[in-house]
């Protein structure tokens, strides 16, 4: 399956990214939160290694393009942040679910990652991941292929 989605600059992006062997989509709950900042920073720190494996990395969450731009400016990340405003992609992978926080229930993105091949086939799905060390976990998996 192929998606068209806007990045933090309002540019339309095709997912899976057609010019890479692998597309890494890491889904995070919300821009500008401490855990999501850690995750974005770790993926950014390892970006050169992902690129060396011909893997295109994207961060993806709800909210609008404007929020993604602010998050990019805050973190200085060098990869594209995608605005899944209606949660279409998150729903497709089963990452938009009912969650609970401090006794209250709400719907949102569950922190997860998928790796797709150049044709959009699912290679690996990481669900309910921890922020710290997850980027390295994804990179290690790609290196094992």
Task: Please give a quick description of this structure.
By secondary structure, the chain is an alpha/beta fold. The protein has helices at 34-45, 47-52, 65-75, 88-93, 134-144, and strands spanning 3-6, 12-15, 22-27, 55-61, 80-83, 96-101, 104-109, 112-117, 122-126.
CATH class: Alpha Beta
Largest sheet: 5 strands, mixed
CATH topology: Glutaredoxin
Tally of helical runs: 5
Mean pLDDT: 95
Low-confidence region ranges = none
**What is the structural class?**
alpha/beta
- Strand arrangement within the widest β-sheet reads 5-4-3-8-9
The named CATH superfamily: Glutaredoxin
Multimer state = single chain
Could you explain how this protein is built, in words?
The structure is a single chain. The chain is an alpha/beta fold. It has a single domain, classed as Glutaredoxin. 32% of the residues lie in helices and 33% in strands. The chain is built from five helices and nine strands. The strands form three sheets. The chain has a five-stranded mixed sheet. A two-stranded antiparallel ribbon has the order 1-2. It has a two-stranded antiparallel ribbon with strand order 6-7. Strand 8 and strand 9 (122-126) form a beta hairpin. The model has no long low-confidence stretch (mean pLDDT 95).
């Amino acid at each position: 399956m192929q998606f068209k989605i806007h990045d933090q600059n309002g540019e339309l992006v095709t997912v899976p990214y057609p010019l890479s062997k692998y597309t890494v989509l890491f889904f995070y709950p919300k821009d500008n939160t401490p855990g999501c900042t850690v995750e974005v920073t770790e993926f950014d720190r390892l970006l050169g290694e992902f690129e060396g494996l011909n893997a295109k990395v994207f961060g993806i969450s709800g909210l609008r393009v404007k929020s993604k731009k602010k998050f990019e400016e805050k973190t200085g990340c060098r990869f594209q942040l995608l605005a899944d405003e209606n949660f279409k992609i998150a729903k497709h992978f089963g990452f938009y679910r009912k969650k609970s926080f401090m006794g209250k229930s709400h719907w949102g993105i569950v922190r997860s990652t998928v790796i797709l091949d150049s044709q959009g086939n699912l290679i690996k799905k990481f669900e309910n991941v921890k922020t710290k060390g997850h980027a390295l976990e994804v990179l290690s998996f790609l290196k094992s292929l």
